[in-house]
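Consider the following assembly input.
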Amino acid sequence: MVNSYAALSGHYDRIMTSGYYDYGDYARTLLDLLGDRRHLLELGVGTGLVVEKLLELAESAADDGTAPEITGIDHTESMLAQARARLGGRAHLLQRDILRMDLPAGFDAAFSVGGVWYHTPDPDGGGKGSTLLCSHLVEDEDNIKGLRNVHAALKPGGVLLLTRQAAHHDHTCELPGGLVYAQTIRRLGEGHYVKDYYVERRDGHVEAHQRSEFRAYPQERGLDLLEKCGFQAVYVSDNGLFHGYARR
Ligand SMILES: C[S@@+](CC[C@H](N)C(=O)[O-])C[C@H]1O[C@@H](n2cnc3c(N)ncnc32)[C@H](O)[C@@H]1O
């Protein structure tokens, strides 16, 4: 399976909750942008960290106690197993590759928090705030197929929300339990990157190593791709965390 997270999954939560992502910020912003949209689909749900925060906030905000109905898909079973343990029956969790996603149409919104797609600042964008569209799918035809599957799963008028994250760069940090996390990124060619993730003990013993490949489209190409698949850019959230696309 291309870009499986199986090798990193045993350490994923430890890395992500040690300051890598602020899930509270993502969930608050999502809730605000989603308004009264209730049927939601997360693309690359991972271990369920986003859904957990979203449900927590939505449940405490809802006067009538109603929470959104969330479906999460992911192709890595060992990530989903953790999501199931975390969320119990509070979300529908399905092992699906986005390329073979065959869900009935009817979602009000789909979102990806560092999942199948996301944005990062474009270091070659001339400092004008332009962003790259990054993808765990490396081939053009797969990106088209995956985005068309999302389009088919959304209701007319539905939205697609993709996070904007910090630029990828080499990075090392301490983790609880005497472990060290390191990531390195290398450009393979125009728009193609390989990222290595390591979890090591202080004595240098490698506990886990995962290699993932990414595709990065410059802003105009990313917008063309989304447009070709039936999505139109409509907004960026005030705090810059999410880019919103309307399903045409
Ligand atoms: C960086 S993790 C993000 C997980 C979660 N959204 C979070 O914020 O913690 C990316 C996830 O996308 C999933 N993924 C990558 N490519 C995928 C594909 N083609 N189909 C389904 N899931 C995919 C991976 O298995 C992984 O769990």
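The chain has a mean pLDDT of 94. Ask yourself how this observation constrains the way the partners meet.
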